[in-house]
Amino acid sequence: MAITIKDIARYAGVSLGTVSKVINNTGNVSEELRLRVEAVIEKLDYRPSDLARNIRRNKTNIISLIIPQILNSFYVQVIDLIEKKINDRGYTLLLCNSDENLDTELKYLRTFSTMRIAGLLLASAGLNQQEKLRSELSSYEALDIPVVLIIRAMEGMPFDTVALDNVNGAYKATRYLIENGHKRIGIISSSIHTSASRERIDGYIKALEEYKLPNDSNLIHVGGWSLDSGYQIVNRLLSMANPPTAIFVASNVQMLGAIKALKERGIRIPQDIALICFDDTLWSSFLDPPITVVRPYTETLCEQSIDLLFSRINTEYTGVPRCKVVPTELI
Q1: CA distance 66 to 101
Q2: Residue 196: is it exposed, middle or buried by C-beta count within 10 angstroms (0-12/13-18/19+)?
Q3: Which of 174, 224, 253, 298 has the highest Cβ tally under 10 A?
Q4: Half-sphere exposure of 42 toward its Cβ, with a 13 Å CA cutoff?
């Protein structure tokens, strides 16, 4: 039969309230009583139920993370870093993948709101349907569950945000190509319904304008989050009467498809065409030759996301929403 706190109280000769205070490290308990209760707990090998204890506290030690692309190597790094940092704080990560589907994301959000989670980290798929998302997240405000939006910024949302400096990263990549003599530069981006994609296109255009190069809409291509998307777009770019001499791929998933298309055509990198990718993935350094990349400070992004979330969980900060922008570097 499982040992209960009633057994602990009976063996120690104290009240249930005293045992509860010792277990939860709350309230005033004399050193003599504390040592007596702890000795009985050790003797009887009592292990309190985390679930029961958290239900009484009206919360769990679970942090939920919703990401949009579990097969994207950038998000794999994010998951790994966040899980380690959450575990270091004594919490457990609950991971879900929306697969860029807002309905799936909303289903997870409804489930989490009934689970007494301690907090939510959200890289949302709902940029183009913010009203739906805002409505669902209103329950988190009512339940006082902290939310931090990560990677994908969403204007007007009353939550802390940690995003990448996509504009400056894309600007630096495009400027690098221009300064290396390229005047026709194609860009391959993913869904225009994410802030990251729109900002990377903005950074690309900013560099063209600064160097007084034409902004040719035929060189701007938006596709899906897939290898096939990158593959198809590169083939379209290279089939143009006046194809680009350089391509900036704003998504690492599309990058693999782009490389496949170039290899099939016998086009060498960088001898025949220049290629830059946004995201320094686990595999990029193994390419031959290595590809120039825009490296996001992923660990900084994860650290700041966790810090903002736990400052809310621990009520160290209760003020207006904060926004952190994490820099990138060209390597």
Answers
A1: 11
A2: buried
A3: 174
A4: 6
Task: Say which residues have a Cβ less than 8 Å from residue 4's Cβ, sequence separation at least 6.
Answer: none
Residue 206 is encoded by which pair of tokens?
Answer: 């900013």
Same structural domain for residues 9 and 154?
Answer: no
Degrees, nearest 5: CA angle 206-154-138:
175
Same domain, 187 and 198: yes
Which ranges of the chain have pLDDT less than 70?
A: 1-2, 24-27, 47-59, 282, 284-285
- Please name the amino acid found at residue 6: K
Judgement on whether residues 212 and 260 belong to the same structural domain of the protein: yes
233-255 per-position pLDDT tens digit:
999 999 999 999 999 998 888 89
The number of distinct structural domains making up the chain is 3
pTM of the model: 0.78
pLDDT of residue 4: 80
| Residue found by looking up tokens 């939860």 in the block | 24
Nearest to 68 by CA among 253, 231, 221: 253
- The alpha carbon dihedral of 276, 278, 279, 282 has a sign of negative
Residue 331 lies inside a defined structural domain of this protein: no
* 160-164 vs 147-151, strand pairing mode: parallel
The alpha-carbon radius of gyration of the chain (Å, integer) is: 26
Is 290 contained in some domain?
yes
Both 98 and 158 in one domain: the answer is: yes
Residue type, 298: T
| Measured torsion, CA atoms of residues 138, 143, 147, 153, in degrees rounded to the nearest 10 | 10
Residue 106 to residue 253: CA distance in whole angstroms? 25
Domain with residue 117: its CATH number is 3.40.50.2300
Q: Which residue range is the domain that position 109 belongs to? A: 58-164+299-326
What's the one-letter identity of residue 257? G
